[in-house]
Amino acid sequence: MWQDTVILAGSIVAIASLFPTLLDENASVPLSTSVPTLVVLSGQGVAFYTLDLLGSAVGALAGFVVWSLIAYFKSPDDAGLVPADLGLDFDFGSDDPPAGDSTPAAETGTHQSGHAPRAD
Questions:
Q1: Does 90 reside within a domain?
Q2: Is the pTM higher than 0.85?
Q3: Average pLDDT, whole number, for the chain?
């Protein structure tokens, strides 16, 4: 099937584009990127195989191997699947400014919502 060849060609291009990341000593790819990619590639590989698209299944397997290497070698040392601190302040019950913002809204000319007042 020609579709198998097209999908395999796309996999080859995608895999080739990942090699600079693998070779870069300073590259850092979070697990929150690589793990979902691994899940998708494994599902695609099974789906392609059951459709008798063996070239595409091999391409998905090769992509899985490369992304596994990226997950193993290029994730930050302290990486978790979900970042521990996203830097977001979810304190909805407080009228205090978010952490790091000590300027009262009255001094900045903005409303508590962060929007400037309307000029009527």
A1: no
A2: no
A3: 81
Domain count, the chain: 1
Q: Residue 65: inside a domain, yes or no?
A: yes
47 membership: H or E segment, kind and range: helix 31-50
- The span from the CA of 41 to the CA of 19, in Å, is 17
What b/e string do you get for 18-40 counting C-beta neighbours within 10 Å, with b at 16 or more?
beebeeeeeeebbbeebeebbee
Specify whether the CB–CB gap between 7 and 59 falls below 8 A. yes
In this predicted model, what pLDDT tens digit does every residue of 36-51 receive, in sequence order? 999 999 999 999 999 9
Residue closest to 31 by CA, chosen among 70, 60, 87, 85: 70
Q: Which amino acid is at 16?
A: A
Q: Does 15 reside within a domain? A: no
Q: What is the pLDDT of residues 61-72, one digit of tens each?
A: 999 999 999 999
Whether residue 45 is contained in a domain is answered as yes
Residues 6+ apart with CB under 8 A from 98: 89, 91
Domain span holding position 44: 1-7+29-75
